[in-house]
Structures are given as C-alpha cells and as structure tokens.
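Um, can you check?
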Amino acid sequence: MASWKSEKSAAGVGNDYYAVPNTFELNGQDTPLAAPPRRRPAKRPRHPCAMMCGLAVLALLLGLGAGPYVDRQLRRDTRSVDDIFGNWGKPGTGTEGIAWYPTDFMRDVIPVPCHSHNDYWRKVPFFSAIHAGCIGVEADVWLRNGDLLVGHDTAALQRNRTFQSLYINPIVEVLERSNPSTEFYNENRRGVFDTDPDQTLILLVDLKTGGAETWPWVVRQLQPLREKGWLSYFEDGKIHKRQVTVVGTGNTPFDQIIANSTYRDTFFDAPLDKLENSAYNSTNSYYASVSFWDTIGNVWFRGEPSEDQLAKIRAQIREAHARGLHARYWELPPWPIHTRNRIWQILVEEGIDLLNVDDLDAATKGDWSKGSFFPRRRDIGR
C-alpha cells in the first residue's frame, strides 16, 4: 500500500515516491524556490433551484410529521422542566412566595393526564409537577410526633417536610392567587391551570403508618381547602368536582372513607385487579390502581405486552370505566427507555386515564408516542 514519505526517507527508495526539491542552484548557491501565491477557488454561485429544493424537502419533512423531531433537536440545549427550580425562593428570582404565579409561572402550561409519582422527591414538590402539566401528585405521609411528615421511608423524614408545608399550604396559596378578589374578578371557580381552569388537581395521599390513626390527621389537615370550597365532594348521590380531588391509598381505611353515606370529600384508590363483585364505584373511589409489574408481569424481553397481557390490561381498564373510576398502573418499567415509551403508548391507546411517571420531561414534553424518525403527536385526553 502506497504511503506518503518525507524527502529524507524517499531519497533511497527505488521507484517509490520521491520528494520534490524545494531549492535550485543559482551562481553556485542553493536558492529557495518561491512558492506561487495561493488562490482561493472561485465560489460557485448557488443555483436557485438547489435552494428551492432544500426548502421543499424541509417543508415535506414538516408535513410528514417531523416537526416534533426537528423541534426537539433545536431545543436540545434548552432548560429541562426542573431547571427553573434551581434557585427557587432566592431573592431576585421572582419565585419568592411564588409571586409570579399564575401569570408567568403557568401561562403556557397544558394539563397532561399524568401522575407525578413520588412527587416529594422532586427539587420543588408540587410546583415541579404542575409546571410540567401533571394533573396528579403523590405524597407519602407518616404520622410522627403529632404531625404528618412526608418521605419515601423513615430515613428521609424531616420535621420541616410536612404534609401541610409541601402540599396543603402551597395549594391554598396557588388557588388564592388564581381566584383573586378584584374589580375584574370575584369568583371562586378556577383551578391551578390557567389554560384549563376547570381541571381538577388529584392529590394522592399514600398512608405509610397505620390507617386507623393516620387518616383522621389527613382529614383534619385538609380543612383549609375544605373551608374555601376547593375539595371535590360527594353529596346526596352526586359527585361535585372542585379544584382539588383527594384520594387515599396505601393504608387508607376504606371503612372510614365510606363512614358517612351522604357526604364525603375524600375518595379511595380502589384495587384495579379486584373490582369485580366489589363495592368500589365513583361515589366512594376515584382511582383504580395496581402494580403493573405484579398484575401484568414482565415485558422487558418482548418490549411490549403479550396477547394475554394485553387482554388483561383491556379487561381491567374496561371494568374500571364501567364503575366510573380512573384507571392507573404504578410500577411501570422505567428502563429500557424504548420499552417504557412503548408501554406508555399502549396504555394510552387502550384508554388508561393517568400515566404514572417519574420522568416529567419525557412524559409531558417529549413525543414518546412513536419511535420512528417521523414521530406523531397523540392527544392523550383528559
């Protein structure tokens, strides 16, 4: 194989490449050769047809549905959902006391039927979720020393991270700002989303300590929302939807939920896989949930449910809807990403009511509904 060689190495190499001398002899002395001036090649004028063809191809890609793909590439260096919370509450950021809510903070947020799983893990609980568009948030509560502390396990509990400080008080403040008393507005009907003020916020309260003693504390701490008339409630056989819908799960005692047969402003998270021949319906429950891993099974090897698994998903969602309940699976496969996205897509196509998500950016900003080069957006409804 031929290779380039230096003048020194080429001097004694038979018929291989030879170096070009860079001097000539003049009056007995070696004189350097003067290199001719380098000329840049003349620029070829761009043909108008080439420019028109390029624009036509771009228009075709956008028309075929590549808009979301192109948009993602253009926004690759933009801030993620949580970046806005890096300096939350610091002077000069506009977030002191959420002073910029709602005009700036929520002005372009579209509600998305997703549930912010383990919401208290986020940099700023509750606010991160609603800024992403999630209509549901989750708080794990523990009864400790006369208060409800929020955390995934006992090692994460801190006295200043309470149910009131992380959820009740912020929700109250947001709704007060959404429903001001001014010369232009004096009503009390708007929820947390400016773009859809009728959308209810689902507050899922997961009891980690004994239900009999913990649930009464939850009910009492909901009083600020109750006094304002912001809790969805059941009365005289009818559901009245309001700004916040509270749902108890975990160790929540169903018997305490239904103790009052004529009025209640909290609801139960019914077991999605045990609805048949049960007492769960929309008058006492809101969600119907179950672990995807436990009830549907492993989908990692196939990348999507088998026919039997898909039939089970359809049957469970159908049963929930027949009872007026909102179907939700938790413990969805988080990885590989393409499997997670495929499961999200299938669940939405089969009529799931809320996606249980950890990655807010991917669920609410990304187009995960199609994995090809030309992704299409789907309206996953309310």
